[in-house]
Every structure is written in structure tokens, then in C-alpha cells.
Amino acid sequence: MRRVVITGIGVVSALGGNQSEFWDRLRSGEAAIGPITKVDTSDLRFKNAAEVRDFNAADHFDDRLQTLLDPFAQYGLAAAREAITSAGIEFDDLLRDRTGVVTGSCLGGKMTEDGLFHDLYAKHRSRVPPIAIPRSMSNAVASHISMEFGITGPAFTLSTACSSSNHAIGQAYWLIRQGTIDAAVTGGSEAPMTYGNLKAWEAMRVVSPDTCRPFSRDRAGMIIGEGGAMFFLEELSTAIDRGANIFAEIAGFGMSADAHHVTLPNAKGAAKAIRRALDDGHMDPAEVGYINAHGTGTAANDVMESQAIRLVFGDHTDDLPVSSTKSMHGHALGAAGAIEAAATILALQNGVLPPTANFNENDDECSINVIKNIPIEKATDAAISNSFAFGGLNAVLAFRRWKG
Known about the structure:
Peroxisomal Thiolase, Chain A, domain 1
């Protein structure tokens, strides 16, 4: 069976506009949560988010592309460019034919849609621009990556709420492992900062009024984030032959469905996805030295996820470091899995486990080994990254540190 490695990473997030900035702030435990600037919050119950603040589209795209790209697609394409540059890839016709593009997004071009609906219903305009559909379609990122780099292998987008990116990365991994393709650009992106979308989240009563404190007893909910992360994956022997820098190996991928409730998560379903990722990677639970948790900071998720971790890891749970980096970059919805995969991979490569920021007090119902506020310098050989979505759709990635 073919092995698959990550040789390129690109990130656009609230923590920074590239991989280096993202990692520097993540490893320091610096939260990028602050006042919302992209939407008028005067009648919102919450005022804070983790916005991408220093991204200037004109620095990345000419006028034509800016017109065609919703912000979610701008984040995704910019991250893909960085990932491909990071991998040192030079495409020829054969590689273009044997490379796929698999992306994830929960919302697609929500900012475009929100603006158009406002024009139609509030301003009573009778027409929308002809680029409305190309800007708003969820597969825009996959399509633009394919077109820009001439990639002609399979290209598609997955939308499974907050598990979208993990499902996308996992499918890309399996396509390479089974020999359908030799390489892939994969990840996810999201731009949810619209008035209509934030009002919808307000109605669910799951967004924190101040900040995100996963697993802390005084947690008050999630914080919406945005951005994207992309990866270049390739078959191991090809990466070695071309002398590529290998960040980590994808060891396994697991999926499950709770078949339980549309918004309330189920520990047994989450545990099943974790076990399947470990089984897929022929990984013993005792090998895992770090978990990047889904960790939304909501009452329901954090207790459920703690239970799921203990169901899988048993007594090893007490010594197994866990953090939720959503405490720093927010919950980026369909892009969450990609951003958190980047955090997990860089943690393995650098031997530094990022913390759960904003943590105040232990919760007896979250009986796991939370990394609290301060990063841990610790080399670990294996890690997993969890994504558990509304609708009970679970996706877990397992990684191994690359030892050369």
C-alpha cells in the first residue's frame, strides 16, 4: 500500500496570512479573537470573532480575479499557491494529469450571496451580476486551483458542515494511497462574516459573548473564525526521489455518522471515527502523543469529545496532551479541519504542542489532559485531529512525524 506525505502547507487565518505567521502565533498561545469589523454588530448578541485582518486581495490577485473570487475563494487560492510553492513543485503534463484537487467548504461564497440578497430584497434591485453563480459556488476554490495550475485530475468539493476539510483531506489521501492519483492539492476555506450568517449563528445560542475557552468549566460557547489552509500531498517515493521537504505523513483517516441528532453530538459516533482513523493507519492508541481536538468551547461538544477520547484511549487519556486551537484562530466552520490539520502537522514537525488558550478552570466533566494556556515542548511520533460536524458527521485524520 502506497504511503502519503505532506510536502507543502499554506495558511490564511486570523493568526496570520501565511504558514510562518500562523505557526509563530500558534506556538506562543496568542489568541486572534477580537471585535468584529466586517459586520455591523449593533444588534448582535456577540461582538467578537477571529477575523482574517491583514489579507489584502490586491496583493494576491489582479482585478479580473478579484472580481471572480468571493473572499472564501481568495483565502483558498492564496493558501493553495503557498502550499504548492512550499512543496517546490514544478508541474509537467504528466503530473498535472496525475494530480487531484479536493477542497472542503461549509458555506461557499456566503459573502457574495448575502450581498446579492441584500441588493434584491432591501434595495429592490431587479438584476444581479452575471458572476453571481461563479463567485458563490462552493467548488470555486477547486476549480480555480485546477485552472491556475493546469491540474486535470479529479477535482471536487465536499460540504459536510464543520467536517468538510477533514473529509476533503481524507479523500485526497485515499485517492493517492489507492493509486488513482499521485498527488493532490487539498484543504478548505471559509468566509462566514456576513450579517445574515452571524444572525443565524446568534439564533442557535452557541456563540460566546467574549472569547473561546474550550474544556474550561466557565466556557460560554464558540467564536466564529475564517480563513483557509491547503496542503500538497504526494506519494512517498516521489517525494523522496525529488528531495522534497516532508512535513509529516498522513497515516490514517476515519469517518462515521452518529445517526443521532442534527445538532447534539454523540460520543460513540465520535469514538468510532477516531478508532477507524487509528485502524486505517495501523496505529496503536498508545502511540498517539497529541490530539488536536474539535474543542468548540460549547457545553455539549466539549463533554462529548472528552468522553469519546476516553472511550478510545482508556487510561492513556490521562497522559495524552489535548488542545483546541480554536481558542486562538476561532471556529472556521468548513475550514476548521484544514487549519487544525496545519496546526497538528507543524506541532509534530517542530516538537511543540500548542495550548488551549483562555483556559481558566478544570471541568470534572472534561476529564482529559488539556494543555492549558502555555505550549509544551514535546517530541511526539503520532497525533490525530478531530472534526465533528452538525448532522453527526465525523472525520478524523491521523498523522505521523516524519523522521527521515
